[in-house]
Amino acid sequence: MGGVVLVFDVLLAAALIWLAWQATHTPGLFRAVISFIIFGLLMALAWVRLEAPDIALAEAAIGAGATGALLLSALGRLAVTDEAGTPWQERADLTFWIPAGLALLGLLTLAAWYLPSPGLGQEVQASLPDSGVQNPVTAVLLNFRAFDTLLEIGVLLLATIAIWSLGPMPMPGAQAIISPVLPALGRILFPMFALVSIYLLWRGSHAPGGAFSAGAVIGAGGILSILAGARPWLTGSAYGPWRVLLSLGLSAMLAVALGVIVLGQPFFAYPTHLAGTIVLLLELAAGLSIAMSLVALYLAGQPPTHWDGESLRQ
Amino acid sequence: MSLNHWLGAVLVISGLPFFFLGTLGLLRFPDVYTRLHALAKSDNVALGFVCLGLAVYSGSLITGLKLLLIWLLMLVASAAGASLIGRTALARGIKPWGV
Description:
The complex is a heterodimer.
Chain A: H1 2-25, H2 29-49, H3 53-77, H4 91-113, H5 121-131, H6 136-144, H7 146-165, H8 181-203, H9 211-227, H10 244-262, H11 275-298
Chain B: H1 3-28, H2 32-58, H3 61-91
Helix pairs in contact in B: 1-2, 2-3
Protein backbone atom coordinates (compact mmCIF):
# COMPACT_ATOMS: atom_id res chain seq x y z
CA MET A 1 0.00 0.00 0.00
CA GLY A 2 2.86 2.36 0.81
CA GLY A 3 4.21 2.07 -2.72
CA VAL A 4 0.89 3.07 -4.29
CA VAL A 5 0.65 6.08 -1.99
CA LEU A 6 4.20 7.12 -2.88
CA VAL A 7 3.43 6.88 -6.62
CA PHE A 8 0.30 9.00 -6.04
CA ASP A 9 2.28 11.64 -4.13
CA VAL A 10 5.00 11.82 -6.79
CA LEU A 11 2.37 12.13 -9.56
CA LEU A 12 0.60 14.86 -7.55
CA ALA A 13 3.81 16.84 -7.05
CA ALA A 14 4.77 16.49 -10.72
CA ALA A 15 1.29 17.57 -11.84
CA LEU A 16 1.50 20.64 -9.56
CA ILE A 17 4.83 21.73 -11.03
CA TRP A 18 3.60 21.12 -14.57
CA LEU A 19 0.35 23.08 -13.95
CA ALA A 20 2.29 25.95 -12.36
CA TRP A 21 4.46 26.08 -15.48
CA GLN A 22 1.35 25.96 -17.68
CA ALA A 23 -0.36 28.74 -15.70
CA THR A 24 2.57 31.10 -16.18
CA HIS A 25 3.95 30.07 -19.56
CA THR A 26 1.16 28.75 -21.73
CA PRO A 27 0.24 30.88 -24.72
CA GLY A 28 -3.32 32.12 -24.36
CA LEU A 29 -4.72 33.59 -21.16
CA PHE A 30 -7.76 31.30 -21.00
CA ARG A 31 -5.60 28.19 -20.82
CA ALA A 32 -3.45 29.87 -18.18
CA VAL A 33 -6.48 30.66 -16.00
CA ILE A 34 -7.88 27.13 -16.33
CA SER A 35 -4.45 25.72 -15.43
CA PHE A 36 -4.40 27.98 -12.37
CA ILE A 37 -7.84 26.73 -11.23
CA ILE A 38 -6.82 23.07 -11.63
CA PHE A 39 -3.58 23.92 -9.83
CA GLY A 40 -5.67 25.19 -6.90
CA LEU A 41 -7.76 22.00 -6.79
CA LEU A 42 -4.68 19.74 -6.85
CA MET A 43 -3.02 21.98 -4.26
CA ALA A 44 -6.04 21.34 -2.00
CA LEU A 45 -5.46 17.62 -2.55
CA ALA A 46 -1.79 18.10 -1.59
CA TRP A 47 -2.86 19.80 1.66
CA VAL A 48 -5.12 16.82 2.37
CA ARG A 49 -2.11 14.52 1.88
CA LEU A 50 -0.17 16.72 4.32
CA GLU A 51 -3.01 16.20 6.84
CA ALA A 52 -4.00 19.88 6.86
CA PRO A 53 -7.71 19.66 5.94
CA ASP A 54 -8.42 23.23 7.10
CA ILE A 55 -5.94 24.67 4.63
CA ALA A 56 -7.26 22.28 1.97
CA LEU A 57 -10.78 23.66 2.42
CA ALA A 58 -9.53 27.26 2.23
CA GLU A 59 -7.37 26.51 -0.82
CA ALA A 60 -10.23 24.80 -2.70
CA ALA A 61 -12.77 27.51 -1.85
CA ILE A 62 -10.63 30.66 -2.13
CA GLY A 63 -7.56 29.62 -4.16
CA ALA A 64 -9.40 27.66 -6.84
CA GLY A 65 -13.00 28.88 -6.53
CA ALA A 66 -13.08 32.58 -5.71
CA THR A 67 -9.73 33.55 -7.32
CA GLY A 68 -10.60 31.47 -10.39
CA ALA A 69 -13.94 33.27 -10.73
CA LEU A 70 -12.18 36.66 -10.36
CA LEU A 71 -9.59 35.75 -13.02
CA LEU A 72 -12.28 34.45 -15.40
CA SER A 73 -14.37 37.58 -14.95
CA ALA A 74 -11.31 39.78 -15.57
CA LEU A 75 -10.60 37.71 -18.68
CA GLY A 76 -14.18 38.20 -19.90
CA ARG A 77 -13.78 41.98 -19.63
CA LEU A 78 -10.47 42.09 -21.51
CA ALA A 79 -10.52 42.70 -25.20
CA VAL A 80 -9.74 39.55 -27.16
CA THR A 81 -5.96 39.40 -27.02
CA ASP A 82 -3.53 37.65 -29.24
CA GLU A 83 -3.15 33.99 -28.39
CA ALA A 84 0.57 34.32 -28.97
CA GLY A 85 3.13 34.15 -26.23
CA THR A 86 3.42 36.30 -23.18
CA PRO A 87 6.58 38.27 -22.40
CA TRP A 88 7.45 35.52 -19.92
CA GLN A 89 8.38 33.25 -22.76
CA GLU A 90 11.38 35.32 -23.75
CA ARG A 91 14.49 33.28 -23.21
CA ALA A 92 16.39 36.18 -21.66
CA ASP A 93 13.93 36.26 -18.76
CA LEU A 94 14.70 32.66 -17.90
CA THR A 95 18.33 33.47 -17.13
CA PHE A 96 16.98 35.68 -14.35
CA TRP A 97 13.92 33.75 -13.19
CA ILE A 98 15.42 30.26 -12.93
CA PRO A 99 18.21 31.34 -10.53
CA ALA A 100 15.75 33.60 -8.69
CA GLY A 101 13.29 30.72 -8.32
CA LEU A 102 16.01 28.35 -7.13
CA ALA A 103 17.24 30.94 -4.61
CA LEU A 104 13.68 31.37 -3.26
CA LEU A 105 13.27 27.60 -3.05
CA GLY A 106 16.56 27.37 -1.13
CA LEU A 107 15.52 30.10 1.30
CA LEU A 108 12.15 28.43 1.91
CA THR A 109 13.81 25.06 2.49
CA LEU A 110 16.19 26.70 4.93
CA ALA A 111 13.28 28.40 6.72
CA ALA A 112 11.36 25.11 6.93
CA TRP A 113 14.51 23.40 8.22
CA TYR A 114 14.87 25.87 11.09
CA LEU A 115 11.18 25.84 12.07
CA PRO A 116 10.92 25.24 15.82
CA SER A 117 9.97 21.62 16.37
CA PRO A 118 7.48 20.43 17.55
CA GLY A 119 5.96 23.92 17.30
CA LEU A 120 3.19 25.20 19.53
CA GLY A 121 0.86 22.24 18.97
CA GLN A 122 1.24 20.88 22.50
CA GLU A 123 0.61 24.28 24.12
CA VAL A 124 -2.57 24.66 22.04
CA GLN A 125 -3.72 21.16 23.00
CA ALA A 126 -3.06 21.90 26.67
CA SER A 127 -5.18 25.08 26.64
CA LEU A 128 -7.90 23.64 24.38
CA PRO A 129 -10.41 23.02 27.23
CA ASP A 130 -10.38 26.77 28.02
CA SER A 131 -10.98 27.83 24.41
CA GLY A 132 -14.65 26.82 24.23
CA VAL A 133 -14.16 24.72 21.07
CA GLN A 134 -12.68 21.30 20.33
CA ASN A 135 -10.99 22.11 17.02
CA PRO A 136 -7.45 23.47 17.65
CA VAL A 137 -7.42 25.48 14.40
CA THR A 138 -10.64 27.31 15.30
CA ALA A 139 -9.33 27.80 18.84
CA VAL A 140 -6.21 29.53 17.47
CA LEU A 141 -8.08 31.58 14.85
CA LEU A 142 -10.91 32.89 16.99
CA ASN A 143 -9.63 32.70 20.53
CA PHE A 144 -5.87 32.46 21.12
CA ARG A 145 -4.90 34.59 18.13
CA ALA A 146 -8.23 36.32 17.50
CA PHE A 147 -6.32 39.60 17.14
CA ASP A 148 -4.74 38.32 13.90
CA THR A 149 -8.15 37.31 12.58
CA LEU A 150 -9.50 40.77 13.47
CA LEU A 151 -6.80 42.29 11.26
CA GLU A 152 -7.48 39.80 8.43
CA ILE A 153 -11.19 40.67 8.45
CA GLY A 154 -10.16 44.33 8.49
CA VAL A 155 -7.96 43.81 5.41
CA LEU A 156 -10.90 42.22 3.55
CA LEU A 157 -13.12 45.19 4.44
CA LEU A 158 -10.40 47.66 3.37
CA ALA A 159 -9.97 45.84 0.05
CA THR A 160 -13.71 46.04 -0.59
CA ILE A 161 -13.78 49.77 0.25
CA ALA A 162 -10.74 50.41 -1.96
CA ILE A 163 -12.28 48.58 -4.93
CA TRP A 164 -15.64 50.29 -4.55
CA SER A 165 -13.98 53.69 -4.33
CA LEU A 166 -12.25 53.11 -7.68
CA GLY A 167 -15.51 53.65 -9.50
CA PRO A 168 -18.91 52.23 -10.35
CA MET A 169 -19.32 48.57 -11.13
CA PRO A 170 -18.73 47.82 -14.82
CA MET A 171 -21.98 46.53 -16.31
CA PRO A 172 -21.74 43.28 -18.23
CA GLY A 173 -22.41 43.68 -21.90
CA ALA A 174 -25.14 41.84 -23.73
CA GLN A 175 -25.18 38.23 -22.66
CA ALA A 176 -23.31 36.14 -25.18
CA ILE A 177 -25.70 33.23 -25.00
CA ILE A 178 -29.31 33.35 -23.86
CA SER A 179 -29.78 30.17 -21.92
CA PRO A 180 -32.29 29.24 -19.23
CA VAL A 181 -29.76 26.83 -17.78
CA LEU A 182 -27.67 29.31 -15.79
CA PRO A 183 -30.54 31.00 -13.85
CA ALA A 184 -32.09 27.59 -13.16
CA LEU A 185 -28.75 26.31 -11.92
CA GLY A 186 -28.41 29.32 -9.61
CA ARG A 187 -31.90 28.74 -8.19
CA ILE A 188 -31.38 25.01 -7.65
CA LEU A 189 -27.92 25.28 -6.16
CA PHE A 190 -28.17 28.33 -3.88
CA PRO A 191 -30.01 26.48 -1.08
CA MET A 192 -27.29 23.83 -1.31
CA PHE A 193 -24.58 26.49 -0.94
CA ALA A 194 -26.41 27.86 2.12
CA LEU A 195 -26.76 24.38 3.65
CA VAL A 196 -23.08 23.48 3.14
CA SER A 197 -22.04 26.85 4.50
CA ILE A 198 -24.11 26.51 7.71
CA TYR A 199 -22.78 22.97 8.12
CA LEU A 200 -19.15 24.14 7.76
CA LEU A 201 -19.73 26.98 10.23
CA TRP A 202 -21.24 24.66 12.83
CA ARG A 203 -18.61 22.00 12.26
CA GLY A 204 -15.81 24.51 12.82
CA SER A 205 -16.16 24.16 16.60
CA HIS A 206 -15.07 20.51 16.63
CA ALA A 207 -13.62 19.63 13.19
CA PRO A 208 -12.07 21.32 10.13
CA GLY A 209 -14.38 24.05 8.85
CA GLY A 210 -15.31 27.44 10.25
CA ALA A 211 -15.90 31.01 9.20
CA PHE A 212 -13.46 31.24 6.28
CA SER A 213 -14.60 28.12 4.42
CA ALA A 214 -18.28 28.78 5.22
CA GLY A 215 -17.99 32.38 4.01
CA ALA A 216 -16.17 31.31 0.85
CA VAL A 217 -18.86 28.73 0.00
CA ILE A 218 -21.80 31.12 0.44
CA GLY A 219 -19.81 33.83 -1.37
CA ALA A 220 -19.31 31.45 -4.30
CA GLY A 221 -23.10 30.90 -4.26
CA GLY A 222 -23.59 34.66 -4.48
CA ILE A 223 -21.13 34.93 -7.39
CA LEU A 224 -23.00 32.15 -9.21
CA SER A 225 -26.28 34.01 -8.67
CA ILE A 226 -24.77 37.20 -10.09
CA LEU A 227 -23.43 35.26 -13.09
CA ALA A 228 -26.97 33.96 -13.56
CA GLY A 229 -28.28 37.52 -13.76
CA ALA A 230 -29.21 38.41 -10.17
CA ARG A 231 -28.88 42.03 -9.06
CA PRO A 232 -26.34 42.78 -6.34
CA TRP A 233 -28.44 44.98 -4.02
CA LEU A 234 -25.61 45.97 -1.73
CA THR A 235 -26.06 49.73 -1.88
CA GLY A 236 -29.00 52.13 -1.80
CA SER A 237 -31.74 52.45 0.77
CA ALA A 238 -34.43 50.64 -1.21
CA TYR A 239 -32.99 47.17 -0.61
CA GLY A 240 -32.46 47.20 3.14
CA PRO A 241 -29.32 47.40 5.22
CA TRP A 242 -27.44 44.50 3.59
CA ARG A 243 -24.33 46.65 3.30
CA VAL A 244 -23.99 46.47 7.09
CA LEU A 245 -23.08 42.79 6.70
CA LEU A 246 -19.80 43.84 5.04
CA SER A 247 -18.53 45.36 8.28
CA LEU A 248 -20.41 43.04 10.67
CA GLY A 249 -17.39 40.77 11.22
CA LEU A 250 -15.00 43.59 12.04
CA SER A 251 -17.45 45.45 14.27
CA ALA A 252 -18.47 42.26 16.12
CA MET A 253 -14.84 41.35 16.78
CA LEU A 254 -14.03 44.88 17.97
CA ALA A 255 -17.12 44.89 20.19
CA VAL A 256 -16.07 41.59 21.78
CA ALA A 257 -12.43 42.69 22.15
CA LEU A 258 -13.48 45.82 24.03
CA GLY A 259 -16.57 44.31 25.69
CA VAL A 260 -14.57 41.74 27.66
CA ILE A 261 -12.69 44.62 29.31
CA VAL A 262 -16.00 45.68 30.90
CA LEU A 263 -16.28 42.15 32.32
CA GLY A 264 -12.89 42.62 33.96
CA GLN A 265 -10.84 40.61 31.45
CA PRO A 266 -7.76 41.74 29.50
CA PHE A 267 -8.20 42.89 25.87
CA PHE A 268 -9.62 40.04 23.73
CA ALA A 269 -9.48 37.45 26.58
CA TYR A 270 -12.86 35.73 26.72
CA PRO A 271 -14.28 34.55 30.06
CA THR A 272 -13.91 30.76 29.97
CA HIS A 273 -17.58 29.95 30.56
CA LEU A 274 -18.66 32.24 27.67
CA ALA A 275 -15.85 31.30 25.25
CA GLY A 276 -17.85 28.73 23.24
CA THR A 277 -20.77 31.10 22.63
CA ILE A 278 -18.49 34.02 21.78
CA VAL A 279 -16.48 31.97 19.27
CA LEU A 280 -19.66 30.71 17.56
CA LEU A 281 -21.16 34.22 17.32
CA LEU A 282 -17.88 35.65 15.99
CA GLU A 283 -17.68 32.84 13.42
CA LEU A 284 -21.22 33.67 12.26
CA ALA A 285 -20.47 37.40 11.98
CA ALA A 286 -17.09 36.83 10.29
CA GLY A 287 -18.56 34.23 7.91
CA LEU A 288 -21.30 36.62 6.76
CA SER A 289 -18.76 39.42 6.24
CA ILE A 290 -16.38 37.17 4.31
CA ALA A 291 -19.23 36.00 2.06
CA MET A 292 -20.39 39.56 1.34
CA SER A 293 -16.82 40.76 0.79
CA LEU A 294 -16.12 38.02 -1.77
CA VAL A 295 -19.27 38.96 -3.70
CA ALA A 296 -18.42 42.66 -3.39
CA LEU A 297 -14.84 42.10 -4.63
CA TYR A 298 -16.16 40.12 -7.60
CA LEU A 299 -18.29 43.10 -8.69
CA ALA A 300 -15.05 45.05 -9.41
CA GLY A 301 -16.66 48.36 -8.42
CA GLN A 302 -19.46 49.97 -6.48
CA PRO A 303 -22.87 48.60 -7.50
CA PRO A 304 -25.43 51.29 -8.41
CA THR A 305 -27.99 52.38 -5.83
CA HIS A 306 -30.89 52.17 -8.28
CA TRP A 307 -31.62 49.48 -10.77
CA ASP A 308 -33.60 50.10 -13.94
CA GLY A 309 -35.17 47.14 -15.60
CA GLU A 310 -35.65 43.71 -14.21
CA SER A 311 -32.17 42.25 -14.14
CA LEU A 312 -28.62 42.88 -15.21
CA ARG A 313 -28.99 40.81 -18.31
CA GLN A 314 -31.92 42.73 -19.81
CA MET B 1 -13.70 -9.21 3.34
CA SER B 2 -17.42 -9.50 3.91
CA LEU B 3 -20.09 -9.62 1.23
CA ASN B 4 -20.72 -5.87 1.05
CA HIS B 5 -16.96 -5.23 0.60
CA TRP B 6 -16.84 -7.62 -2.35
CA LEU B 7 -20.02 -6.20 -3.87
CA GLY B 8 -18.78 -2.63 -3.36
CA ALA B 9 -15.42 -3.37 -4.97
CA VAL B 10 -17.11 -5.02 -7.96
CA LEU B 11 -19.41 -1.99 -8.43
CA VAL B 12 -16.53 0.52 -8.21
CA ILE B 13 -14.50 -1.49 -10.72
CA SER B 14 -17.54 -1.70 -13.04
CA GLY B 15 -17.52 2.11 -13.18
CA LEU B 16 -13.93 2.35 -14.42
CA PRO B 17 -14.54 1.27 -18.07
CA PHE B 18 -17.08 4.09 -18.43
CA PHE B 19 -14.52 6.66 -17.19
CA PHE B 20 -11.97 5.15 -19.58
CA LEU B 21 -14.34 5.26 -22.57
CA GLY B 22 -15.43 8.83 -21.76
CA THR B 23 -11.80 9.96 -21.60
CA LEU B 24 -11.05 8.08 -24.82
CA GLY B 25 -13.97 9.91 -26.45
CA LEU B 26 -12.70 13.25 -25.15
CA LEU B 27 -9.28 12.57 -26.69
CA ARG B 28 -10.33 10.90 -29.93
CA PHE B 29 -13.63 12.47 -31.06
CA PRO B 30 -13.33 15.12 -33.79
CA ASP B 31 -15.13 18.20 -32.40
CA VAL B 32 -16.48 19.86 -29.26
CA TYR B 33 -20.03 18.51 -29.60
CA THR B 34 -19.11 14.86 -29.96
CA ARG B 35 -16.61 15.20 -27.12
CA LEU B 36 -19.30 16.68 -24.86
CA HIS B 37 -21.58 13.82 -25.85
CA ALA B 38 -18.96 11.29 -24.81
CA LEU B 39 -18.04 12.97 -21.53
CA ALA B 40 -21.41 14.10 -20.18
CA LYS B 41 -22.95 10.65 -20.56
CA SER B 42 -20.27 8.13 -19.66
CA ASP B 43 -18.79 10.04 -16.72
CA ASN B 44 -22.20 10.25 -15.05
CA VAL B 45 -22.72 6.49 -15.34
CA ALA B 46 -19.17 5.86 -14.15
CA LEU B 47 -19.55 8.12 -11.12
CA GLY B 48 -22.92 6.51 -10.40
CA PHE B 49 -21.25 3.09 -10.25
CA VAL B 50 -18.39 4.40 -8.11
CA CYS B 51 -20.74 6.16 -5.66
CA LEU B 52 -23.05 3.14 -5.46
CA GLY B 53 -20.05 0.87 -4.89
CA LEU B 54 -18.64 3.11 -2.15
CA ALA B 55 -22.08 3.32 -0.50
CA VAL B 56 -22.37 -0.48 -0.45
CA TYR B 57 -18.77 -0.77 0.74
CA SER B 58 -19.36 1.65 3.66
CA GLY B 59 -22.53 -0.18 4.71
CA SER B 60 -23.86 3.01 6.32
CA LEU B 61 -27.10 4.69 5.26
CA ILE B 62 -25.91 8.24 6.05
CA THR B 63 -22.73 7.79 3.97
CA GLY B 64 -24.84 6.30 1.18
CA LEU B 65 -27.17 9.32 1.16
CA LYS B 66 -24.18 11.71 1.10
CA LEU B 67 -22.73 9.81 -1.89
CA LEU B 68 -26.14 9.95 -3.59
CA LEU B 69 -26.16 13.74 -3.07
CA ILE B 70 -22.66 13.99 -4.56
CA TRP B 71 -23.80 12.01 -7.60
CA LEU B 72 -26.94 14.16 -8.06
CA LEU B 73 -24.87 17.38 -7.80
CA MET B 74 -22.47 16.00 -10.42
CA LEU B 75 -25.43 15.19 -12.70
CA VAL B 76 -26.72 18.78 -12.41
CA ALA B 77 -23.23 20.26 -12.90
CA SER B 78 -22.34 18.11 -15.89
CA ALA B 79 -25.72 18.65 -17.60
CA ALA B 80 -25.54 22.43 -17.07
CA GLY B 81 -21.87 22.62 -18.06
CA ALA B 82 -22.36 20.57 -21.21
CA SER B 83 -25.37 22.66 -22.21
CA LEU B 84 -23.52 25.96 -21.66
CA ILE B 85 -20.39 24.80 -23.50
CA GLY B 86 -22.50 23.53 -26.40
CA ARG B 87 -24.53 26.75 -26.65
CA THR B 88 -21.38 28.90 -26.47
CA ALA B 89 -19.74 26.84 -29.19
CA LEU B 90 -22.84 27.17 -31.41
CA ALA B 91 -23.03 30.93 -30.73
CA ARG B 92 -19.40 31.29 -31.77
CA GLY B 93 -20.23 29.61 -35.05
CA ILE B 94 -18.38 26.35 -34.54
CA LYS B 95 -19.91 23.93 -37.04
CA PRO B 96 -20.74 20.42 -35.82
CA TRP B 97 -18.53 17.76 -37.38
CA GLY B 98 -19.85 16.33 -40.61
CA VAL B 99 -22.49 19.08 -41.14
